[in-house]
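note to self — DONT lose this again. spent like an hour looking for the file last time. sequence + predicted structure for the chain T wanted, 187 res
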Amino acid sequence: MRIIAGKFRSRVLAAPPGMETRPTTDRLRETLFNVLAPRMDGSVWLDLYAGSGAVGLEALSRGAARVHFVEHAKQALRALEKNIASLGVADHTEIEAREMAKALPALAAAGVRCDVCFLDPPYQQHGAYARTLEFLSHSSLLAEDAIVVAEHDKHFSPAGEFGAIIRYRELKQGDAVLSFYRRSGTR
């Protein structure tokens, strides 16, 4: 696994051992960042269920100003911390090392507002998508024109609407799908 483009291009990233964490493929990350390219400079990101942090670190490499990572699995946290240290980006990151149900309210209470939120729960945890997207739709975590991207298996689709946010685009690639959400009425 590596950073695809930007100032850290071709830098290799550590991955947690075992099959518990499923990294977002290079090809899918490339697709994601091609879509989000106009929003990158100076953006603030939430990388939820971050694993090794490959998506958030790619965002920093491509011009994001700050990434808030949420991850609670010990082996994934070790890989994430190692990757942040090896790239020297600790000043541009924050790690919430706790369950999503506690991390999201803590981030909201701290006044965090993101421009892009990426979530990639374990594919088999279908309920995690609904809980996370529902919380985001009613929280102060999303800037007015924020985009939320959910990566999921092609055999499962989260709902098209969660409170104030609606799905406006889906991109399928192999066994994975990226569902893009935004507040209704925004472009």
